Amino acid sequence: xxxxxxxxxxxxEYIEIEREIIVAPNTTRWYNIKYYPIYxxxxxxxxxxxxxxDIDARKRYEEELQTSNNKLIAILxxxxxxxxxxxxxYDVVLFNKKAAIDTQGVLGKDxxxxxNVKDYLSENNAPRVLKYLSVVFAGKVVDYEEEIRxxxxxxxxxxxxxxxxxxxxxxxxxxxxxxxISELKKNFHNLLIERKLFxxxxxxxxxxxxxxxxxxxxxxxxxxxxxFGYEVExxxxxxxxxxxxxxxxxxxxxxxxx
Length: 258
Known about the structure:
This protein is of the alpha+beta class. It has 10 helices and 10 strands. It has helices at 2-10, 56-67, 73-76, 97-107, 126-137, 182-198, 224-228, 232-235, 240-243, 246-257, and strands at residues 15-24, 27-39, 45-54, 82-86, 92-95, 142-150, 153-165, 171-180, 208-210, 217-220. A 5-stranded antiparallel beta sheet has the order 1-2-3-9-10, sandwiched between helices. A 5-stranded antiparallel beta sheet has the order 5-4-8-7-6, sandwiched between helices. The termini are close together.
């Protein structure tokens, strides 16, 4: 939890976790939580940048995909990620609209049921992807990111491979969830630039950073107004306990305890 991870981040360790958090009685949500060490010009850790992203929808359907063999086309077409199901021969069994759109847009090929995944792999990535598939059919989960370039354009994708089991607990297929993370990569690149500028004077940093020596907020980004409704001036120099809404304090208490 926070009590363990925050000191680690203060010692210079980057931490990323996914956690299910109680947000209300009998209600939980999944969050992707990241701790970024912030360094001074002397390369000493000055503070920690904390990021929390709601991934509840993604986690719910990932859990479903690992235990169910139902063709969740209606649900899958409502999500923002691409989904492809491959059988033991690596043939496409089903896919959603997002996967078809991305395949056509990035590779210039139609994604078709019955086609083999090898038809969509390049000479460079085919050996690696086929190795990943064999690992997943052995019961493992694979998660990786890849930059795909085509026609002078570059897009980043996250690929997550899950084994799919039947009622007899036998793996009979692989579910591939494909997320376009191009914007996330762009924002992370900007964050790295901002982190370098952080030591040179006032700049925009993502959300807020609290420091060990004072436990008060020293830096916030302008988007805190859009996200939380607070003006930058309302937050700087204060403990986050001073400006959080009472309901938010309850959520934060649950988060720290868990």
